[in-house]
Design a protein that fits this description.
The chain has 493 residues and is mainly alpha-helical. It has 21 helices and no strands.
Length: 493
């Protein structure tokens, strides 16, 4: 099985199971209880998200002779031990000083996640590097399925939000065992090279900044909402961000590794590779995110029930913000592939700081304002990421903005088509009729999206045909397919 396909299947099923777990639990608990779990997991997922940052990328793309695999493995395990200890300290502080025993108990139970994930990072990277697509699909499928079953069992035993904790632990433990059994780790696994550890650690700084920014964008936001607003508001935000995050992961987990490989082997000028990848990626994911944003009120009511309706507006805003996040991700992937991870570190660290500041300001005006503040931050730093790429200054940045404006045209057409259908067909009370209403709106919106793309964005349409015909870089070179210059279509530069 192809590695990219294996990754897509694995990450997609992981997000489906994660989404199902929240959808099931939402029927049994209150938004306030979800908020308590969200605050606890926000604390423990900070060290967990930083574990192995950059080491996986190094093993996949920068260690072709496999000299650094053992060093990377033990370095990541060390960070996992530290992360687990920090989690236990956080649990003690939360219980003793903050007098929050429920949150402290969840933090303590989830603390081993850092170590479990640490042991998994390098074996997964080895499977990706060796092209073991079948293992990359089968192991996560088994882990996530068993984790979901464990969640259902705990819910039936009236375990409440503890079902989410058990789900995380079971799936992580099965993932660890499966990856260790499937990966071909080097026979001298005990070997540790201090010089290599320092070199890999320096490279990982850019990815650490990315992970920190990712934590600040989601989990740091939840901490701020919990402090400024309430645990109920955290519950609403967590559910909306979980739904939006599942969509985001599904549409990016496959393309992101593919982009890293494409940028790494591409002989084209960096700015051209960036613009091609940006145009193609956004054109493929935009209809999914725009459609979800427009259908948010009905989706929330059908999936979660009327209790969770305040999450709908937040979900819509986060879906639109995901487009800017994807654009930033394409630029960051290019910079990392060209050995400029320090720039990514600087950008993502600044993003994290700006996000925290914006969240503190937005939370003063309510939940929707907090989501809008987050949208503004990710949009601004998308522009910053594009500007930092040297080859895009000054005319290249203008080309990037023109591409974004052109790519947005089909999205606007889709939103208008869906909006007209939803406006002319008032929201019914029956679930089946509501689904039919959303389906019709989505089909007409997608038709409008495809029509505008084919009529006005010929370069993007050409990229679609290249992708479907699997001729990217094979029989017909990409520059010949795309043509020379920037005169394809009326809106596309």
């Amino acid at each position: 099985m192809n590695t990219a396909i294996g990754l897509i299947l694995a990450r997609s099923w992981m997000n489906v199971c994660g989404l199902l777990s929240f959808l099931v639990v939402a029927r049994f608990v209150t938004p306030a209880e979800i908020g308590i779990y969200a605050l606890a997991s926000s604390v423990i997922l900070l060290p967990t998200s930083l574990v192995g940052a950059g080491y996986s990328e190094h093993v996949i793309s920068r260690d072709p002779e496999r000299h650094d695999t053992a060093t990377a493995f033990w370095s990541v395990v060390a960070t996992g031990v530290i992360g687990t200890l920090l989690g236990l300290v956080a649990a003690t502080v939360t219980d003793a000083l903050l007098d929050q025993p429920e949150i402290a108990r969840i933090i303590a139970l989830m603390a081993p996640l850092s170590l479990l994930w640490a042991v998994t990072v390098v074996p997964e990277a080895v499977l990706i590097r060796d092209g073991r697509g079948s293992a990359l699909a089968a192991v996560p499928f088994t882990a996530d399925t068993l984790g979901l079953l464990a969640l259902v069992v705990v819910l039936l035993l009236d375990g409440g939000v503890m079902a989410l904790v058990v789900n995380r632990l079971v799936s992580s433990a099965v993932l660890l065992a499966g990856y260790l059994g499937a990966a071909r780790l080097p026979p001298r696994l005990w070997h540790f090279d201090l010089a290599a550890a320092k070199r890999i650690g320096w490279f990982s700084l850019g990815v650490v900044g990315s992970r920190l920014a990712g934590w600040a964008n989601q989990f740091g936001t939840e901490l701020i909402i919990g402090v400024v607003l309430s645990t109920t508001a955290v519950g609403y935000f967590r559910m909306a961000s979980r739904l939006a995050g599942a969509l985001f992961s599904i549409v990016t987990q496959g393309p992101n590794p593919a982009q890293l490989a494409y940028f790494g082997r591409s002989t084209a000028a960096p700015h051209k590779a960036y613009l091609h990848a940006l145009r193609l990626h956004l054109s493929l994911v935009m209809p999914i995110l725009v459609g979800a944003a427009m259908a948010a009120p009905t989706l929330i009511e059908v999936l979660l029930g009327p209790t969770w309706q305040p999450s709908a507006l937040v979900f819509s805003i986060l879906c639109i913000g995901s487009l800017a996040t994807i654009g930033s991700g394409v630029g960051a992937t290019l910079l990392i592939s060209r050995g400029r991870s320090h720039r990514v570190f600087m950008i993502h660290t600044a993003t994290a700081i700006a996000t925290v500041a914006a969240m503190l300001l937005g939370a003063q005006f309510g939940l929707a304002a907090t989501a809008i503040a987050k949208l503004l931050v990710v949009t601004v730093f998308f522009g910053v990421t594009a500007a930092v790429i040297e080859e895009l200054r000054p005319t290249g940045l203008q080309q990037t903005m023109r591409i974004l404006g052109a790519t947005a045209a089909p999205g606007v057409a889709m939103a208008l088509a869906m909006g007209i259908v939803l406006l002319l067909w008032p929201a019914p009370t029956e679930t089946v009729v509501s689904l039919l209403r959303i389906t019709l709106a989505g089909v007409l919106g997608l038709a409008a999206y495809v029509a505008v793309t084919l009529l006005a964005l010929r370069r993007t349409a050409t990229l679609w045909r290249v992708l479907l015909l699997k001729k990217w870089g094979r029989r017909r070179p990409l520059p010949r397919i795309l043509g020379r210059g920037w005169r394809f279509g009326t809106l596309s530069p």
